Amino acid sequence: VGCGNGGSDAGGGGGEVLAGLVTKTDTNPFFVKMKEGAQQAAGSTGMKLQSFAGKQDGDNQSQVDAIENLIGAGAKGILLTPGDSKAIVPSVDKARKAGLLVIALDTQLEPANAADATFATDNFQAGLLIGQWAKAKFAKDGKQAKIALLDLNPNQVSVDVQRDTGFLTGFGVEVKDKKRIGSESDPRVVGHDVTNGAPDGGRTAMENLLQKDAGINLVYTINEPAAAGAYEALKAAGKDKDVVIVSVDGGCPGVRNVKAGVIGATSQQYPLKMAKLGVEAISKFAKDGTKPQNTPGKDFVDTGVTLITDQAISGVDSKDSAWGLDNCWG
Amino acid sequence: MTSPDIPVLQARGLIKRYGNVIALAGTDLDLMPGEILAVIGDNGAGKSSLIKALSGALVPDDGTITLDGKRVSFGSPIDARDSGIETVYQSLAVAPSLDIASNLFLGRERRRKGILGSVFRILDRDAMRQEARRQLDGLGIMTIQNPGQAVETLSGGQRQAVAVARAAAFGSRVIIMDEPTAALGVRESRAVLDLILHVRDQGLPVILISHNMPHVFEVADRIHIQRLGRRKAILDRANVSMSDAVAIMTGAMEPQDGDR
Amino acid sequence: MTSPDIPVLQARGLIKRYGNVIALAGTDLDLMPGEILAVIGDNGAGKSSLIKALSGALVPDDGTITLDGKRVSFGSPIDARDSGIETVYQSLAVAPSLDIASNLFLGRERRRKGILGSVFRILDRDAMRQEARRQLDGLGIMTIQNPGQAVETLSGGQRQAVAVARAAAFGSRVIIMDEPTAALGVRESRAVLDLILHVRDQGLPVILISHNMPHVFEVADRIHIQRLGRRKAILDRANVSMSDAVAIMTGAMEPQDGDR
Amino acid sequence: MSTTLSTNRPSGGAPSEGDHPHRSPLTRLQHLLHAQATIGPAVVLLLAVIVFSLLSTRFLQPANISLVLQQVAVVGTIAVGQTIIILTAGIDLSCGAIMVLTSIVMAKVSAEHGLPGVLALLLGFLVGAGCGLVNGLLVTRLKLPPFIVTLGTLNVFFALNLWYSGSATIRGTDMPALLLWTGQTFTIGGTRVTYGSIGMVLLVALVAFVLKNTAWGRHIYATGDDAEAARLSGIRTNRVLLSAYGIAGVIYALSAWVLIGRIASASPQAGQLENLDSITAVVIGGTSLFGGRGAVVGSLLGALIVGVFRNGLALARVDVLWQTLAVGVLVIVAVSLDQWIRKVRP
Amino acid sequence: MSTTLSTNRPSGGAPSEGDHPHRSPLTRLQHLLHAQATIGPAVVLLLAVIVFSLLSTRFLQPANISLVLQQVAVVGTIAVGQTIIILTAGIDLSCGAIMVLTSIVMAKVSAEHGLPGVLALLLGFLVGAGCGLVNGLLVTRLKLPPFIVTLGTLNVFFALNLWYSGSATIRGTDMPALLLWTGQTFTIGGTRVTYGSIGMVLLVALVAFVLKNTAWGRHIYATGDDAEAARLSGIRTNRVLLSAYGIAGVIYALSAWVLIGRIASASPQAGQLENLDSITAVVIGGTSLFGGRGAVVGSLLGALIVGVFRNGLALARVDVLWQTLAVGVLVIVAVSLDQWIRKVRP
Ligand SMILES: Nc1ncnc2c1ncn2[C@@H]1O[C@H](COP(=O)(O)OP(=O)(O)OP(=O)(O)O)[C@@H](O)[C@H]1O
Ligand SMILES: Nc1ncnc2c1ncn2[C@@H]1O[C@H](COP(=O)(O)OP(=O)(O)OP(=O)(O)O)[C@@H](O)[C@H]1O
Ligand SMILES: [Mg+2]
Ligand SMILES: [Mg+2]
């Protein structure tokens, strides 16, 4: 009862449209940039934006609280990067029933149509691109790959799984179960370890995998901070020249690392764009009730991924790091 | 129930080691019906260890304990309590944050009558308060006005009084007191000594540990001297002087044959 | 240095409240040079509070303290110690996990000579051990073989000895002891009483709190009776009987005019 | 000389802090309000409510109050178990892990193996009790500090949860209705309230009553106060401790039920913050981390204080970053205020 | 009657546990090895090393050992500060937050504001000391339990870190070389070792020496043992506590330096697990959470045990999931073993 019509008396904002942004964490620069982008877009469309975040990856409860608080505060729409894309669905339903537009950013809900729209990177695609690039590079150099995969954490969250399996698929490794990390049995894969998406974890994981097999020459990383840590481990082991690191994100420090040769290739995503599109969609919805349309052939609005590398290989579309720097976020 | 010749409580050859410290080196003890037995000895002579073994607070490595001629072995203080042995420990053993009535009934709470008590196990707090009040009054402890008061708000002497009252209220076979007057003032000590005499007069035997010789010689019927973890002598108060007892206790004098 | 007529330590009108409990209700105290002053009183009479005020462990709400005629105000035990007042507290105040030497020198550690000590502030552990050994030997404490032993491995009596030794070693103006013999056996108590007499004979005045009247009457020169947070009387040991002192202490008798 | 065992205090005795045997209901209420452990947090909560209702007109609306109750239901329920453990002078870092594990068990056995809701719940309670008993056995048999035991089992239970769940979230639509019942609402005076919130409040009342009015409750306090003294007083402290951990485990299973209802799904990633959050609630609620002192009502107030704070700050449109900072400051201020209030009392 | 102050024990006295005034270096070494607090963890470490070297031939290679040293350098350094706090009967949940905050400050002032490395480091140490002193002041002035104080400041420092850094990672290439120096390696007997690892070992040695051989060190132990007794013995316990928190803060700043060297960048997301990890190391290292007992060498061993375990399990190709479980079991087993070893000692 109380929730739905809460929007009509629109708080102290004096008729301003309120939009909410709920991110996975408020520490990851990716989400911080997303927040900045949303704030900017809100400013230019004359909306008020209130942001919330989980306390850590996978923190569903704080996101549930945030959605409820936003419903209560009379928001018109919510931009959400779900920490647990399944578990948040009932709360999203509640919000939508209360008349809010809910847009998933960065990560799809499960099922994807639980949100009114999704503006996201295709994370599988992001993994696929760096996998394809690495495959072509190794074919060109005539090297046999020995692969290490540095994942997020043991929890098998969807982004983690999609990027990991996307990479392997792109590289031509047969993945038996695309919903789980570690289902492949290809001898080229040395092993997986977890990094918590942070440099220290990346370094430790890389060190341990190198101890398992010193011949590792291709490293997939969940994100660029983990890649930076992995690079330090390789450098310390004197292998930084022989090993190729690939990653996902396209943050400015990451792209600079591409330029510096630390990272071979990264799949760049566009949080600012996601946020901007999301805010604009809410603004439009608030004005005339129209909802955004999905990218044809997909169940979400693909905000695109671009492969950034300075070692372009024919057959795999890519941009160089200069372009990447012009388009990087934070 | 008890014959005047069989000891109420008897210990034989109790041994207790802590690492390489031997607290009890094969000690004996005999408590006769209706007597006050004082246990005296140097610091570390094993007095507290001895009575802890008798009250189940400590399981001896070896040795036997008999109660009214029947062998017992106490695995915990509860076993000893269930046999009617009540102890006032040197460390008092009260729960400071609980009230006086709760402390008095700790471990043997009264439950409500009827289904509330038998099925829902609800305490009869009022009954316990009233009973506590009665106990304290009966012992002449008048300064404690409210049995619902937390024990931590009591003075040292009052706490001691609660511990003593608990033992006196529930002891049915033996009461053991480990230095009950150590922290007490002259007047408070006096009251405890009177209480001990009072309990004895009701027929309950009492073991009293004390370093205070005048107290010991005032109330004890017999005196057990503990030395180096063993019973060194057992003396009849009537037949021994304070200075001789102290001399035996400290090893300055050997006990006579009849005393062993 | 001290005139025989001026009290070494004097307190006037000390007041200390805890919530609505009044521990000190305006008490006085006079300690004359070279005397042993016993402080006696019921439990909760404010004896410990009084000596805590004198030793800086407690800051009184009101009242004055003078040392050798000069007014002092102690904010912490360190201030009192720096003025030469050493105290053995009822709770002993030792650090169980530290060794005997460390405890003896706690808060006034010896540092190495030269730059190691002055700049790097490194302790001279050997010197402290030797000094501790000397102190303990000097007091006749022979059973403690190793000053490097942790205090927690000592018996209650030995711990008490360490606390007393610390006070005796460092006290230069006044030594205060709060029930130093409460937990001690006959022999150990004897040793502490001898120590007190020994210290007095060296010219240091001593304040002794005790519930043990025979002890008090054996060593004290004068007896301060504390009652309900006030000094009720001050008696000359030579002129008073034990039973009169106890009667005044418990309020059964009023002190004579000359005693106040 | 008197022959009664009597002692004397200069001021005529300490203030009376307990209850008198015979009192009017009003006096009883008054005493309840002034009970040492809960007056502090109650005042803090009142202050917070006053401040936030001045900052935002929405704050005191029934719908918002119901919302806060829902938001604290999970942590409030866990805090009840945590309070019992802390009262025994323990601490439970594994509470969140037990909750997640049981929620996954309840959800999975019903959603995937088709067990009826009642049996799934029962099984969950058994698992919760089992986990709690593991903690209890390690504490009582190995004599390890609870902090260490639960630091260890926290990892063990969490790993078991990930393994059993295959890290997959189970959706509410696949579960029997009973599991989701705690998230259902009913209406009181026009305001919707979830059964979960009500369940939490009833649980608090029940546990408060049991702690006060059963021997077991008294023994929890006595054991936490001074375990050795309790043992010498004839309390089987090991049994008390074991039962405390076991019952706490059951309460965590209850919180798992509340959690499933609240998010209408079971997520293996949940519960990682509940340990510090529940300890925060207990501590703000005035229960001593040293054991033996405190009350479960205080912990509910503590959870509400944090909930009101988060909600109020959100309504006042304070940024998340500053919310984090504010909650940090709140913990310190609330506990200081509580201590200060206790000092001020006569 | 004897006139000496002498007491008697049936068995002729407790075993001597301290050191004798005059001893040969060999006896000294022997005593060091047998020092109560460190024998347990040393044995556990030895056992772990033996088991893992049987499981994998790589394990005992110098390169791998150097690696483990590098991996534990950050948490090992933090554990030194944590040990000091725990010895005073406190606990520091804010250590990781202080570390991240100082690392960001060091990195940002040099990378963005161009401060020379030395000044940046100094400023970092100041910030670390400041944060520690805030904790210390709250503990000593408000008399709040350290658990609560640091639970609060944990949030505050972390929020400040996010605010100041804008959540942006600062890359090592933008920093002066000095900040990255701890990650540089040099070669001992063909094995590369980082200055950071060596720094941790030296820090442990230094702090162990200071705790043993200065008045301040003795006062830390005495205060943790029994604060009131220490105060009555003439120790300014508030000052001791304050200095302990301040120095711990400086040590956390040192660990920030080690962290920057290790990851060649400064990340505002680091440090969220360091509080429980460092407490785990301290506890496995045999230091009592009740204060007054323990040694900083034990904490280093504790950190190494966890590091060896993680590394060894990874080499033995154990899945991450089971690594989590194994570390949980390790904590309990290691501490039980330690307690058992102490009991067995004569
Ligand atoms: N729990 C324990 N651990 C180790 N040693 C102990 C323990 N309890 C007692 N002891 C040792 O056993 C011996 C006897 O101790 P006990 O307490 O029985 O002596 P006591 O005669 O009661 O002395 P006191 O008169 O000082 O109370 C002492 O040497 C004591 O140090
Ligand atoms: N820290 C405290 N807080 C509250 N009340 C206190 C405190 N210390 C002492 N009191 C109260 O002050 C009064 C005097 O206590 P004090 O310890 O000075 O008595 P005492 O004469 O030393 O008694 P005893 O002979 O039992 O040692 C008592 O009523 C006591 O309960
Ligand atoms: Mg004893
Ligand atoms: Mg006293």
Automatic annotation (TrEMBL), chains B, C:
- Supply the source organism for this entry: Solihabitans fulvus
Keywords (alphabetical) are:
ATP-binding, Nucleotide-binding
For the keyword Glycoprotein, the answer is no
Which PROSITE patterns does the annotation name?
ABC_TRANSPORTER_1 (PS00211), ABC_TRANSPORTER_2 (PS50893)
GO-annotated molecular function: ATP binding; ATP hydrolysis activity
Give all residue intervals belonging to the ABC transporter domain: 9-253
Protein name per its UniProtKB record: Sugar ABC transporter ATP-binding protein
**InterPro entries in UniProt:** AAA+_ATPase (IPR003593), ABC_carbohydrate_import_ATPase (IPR050107), ABC_transporter-like_ATP-bd (IPR003439), ABC_transporter-like_CS (IPR017871), P-loop_NTPase (IPR027417)
TrEMBL record, chains D, E:
Q: Where is the protein found, in the record's own terms?
A: Cell membrane
Q: Where are the transmembrane segments?
A: 39-60, 72-105, 117-140, 147-166, 186-211, 240-260, 280-308, 320-341
What Pfam family is a match for this entry?
A: BPD_transp_2
Asked if the keyword Transmembrane belongs to this entry, the reply reads: yes
Please list the residue ranges that the record marks as compositionally biased, kind Polar residues: 1-10
Q: What are the entry keywords?
A: Cell membrane, Membrane, Transmembrane, Transmembrane helix
**Single GO molecular function:** transmembrane transporter activity
The UniProt annotation puts the region (Disordered) at 1-23
Q: Which InterPro entries match?
A: ABC_transp_permease
Write the protein's name. Answer: ABC transporter permease
Taxonomic lineage of this organism?
A: Bacteria, Bacillati, Actinomycetota, Actinomycetes, Pseudonocardiales
